[in-house]
Amino acid sequence: MNKVRYTFVLTRSQINGLKKWLLAQLPTLEYVSSFAVGCGYVWSCVAKSRVLVEGAKGEYEVERFACAADWRARLNPPVPQTYFSNCTGLCLATTKTSLITGSKGFPTAVELLATAIREGVNGKQGVFKDAETWLDKVLLEVPTMGVAGTPKINVYDVDFGWGKPEKYETVSLDYNDSISVNASKESSEDLEIGLCLPAEQMDAFISISGNEIESILSHEF
């Protein structure tokens, strides 16, 4: 498939502007993280670009966004402070394409994702609720966008002895539907987001995402 890569940065100023706009659109949403804003924005714009290029074929009855949450401090009882390994859980937002491609597509995507993360890490029934179904959910053949990376670790500060990275790329994006989300090179408060799409869809994504953020940030808050 003729796929191309694209990396862009959401600056702290842009993220704050998007948050203000979102909270005006979703007054019942108590809190929205920069991660949810960035991922919801990309999820919605990718879906819109797919429908624009593929038409009805690009509309799914079910599509999902999946990300991992750090559960080390959220287990009851908590894991020992000396624990040195992974302890992550799945946060899964599910919807139909038409809900994240309409006029309220972006806020809908963010609300779904923010709710999935909140329930995944703060659920009153514990983080292991429905754990027996996780494998079935992961293996379900439903279009799913995932996330590689985390903005909590600044990859551009890593130095193995031959200098810091000039450009960070996640190779696996070529082979799945994930996006990469990391702290940017210029500022750890900015989000550097990478994705890989068919060339025609990527052109549509760049146009749609650029127009959408320009339109939103043109509002007076």
> Which blocks of ≥5 consecutive residues have pLDDT under 50?
none
Query: Mind summarizing the main beta sheet?
Result: 4 strands, mixed
Ends apart, CA distance between termini: 43 Å
How many strands in all? Answer: 7
Fold and architecture overview:
- The protein is of the alpha/beta class.
- The chain contains six helices and seven strands; from the N terminus they run βααββαααββββα.
- The strands form two sheets. Strands 1-7-6-5 form a four-stranded mixed beta sheet. A three-stranded mixed beta sheet has the order 3-2-4.
- α2 crosses α6.
- The longest helix has 21 residues.
- It is globular.
- The chain starts with a strand and ends with a helix.
- The model has no long low-confidence stretch (mean pLDDT 90).
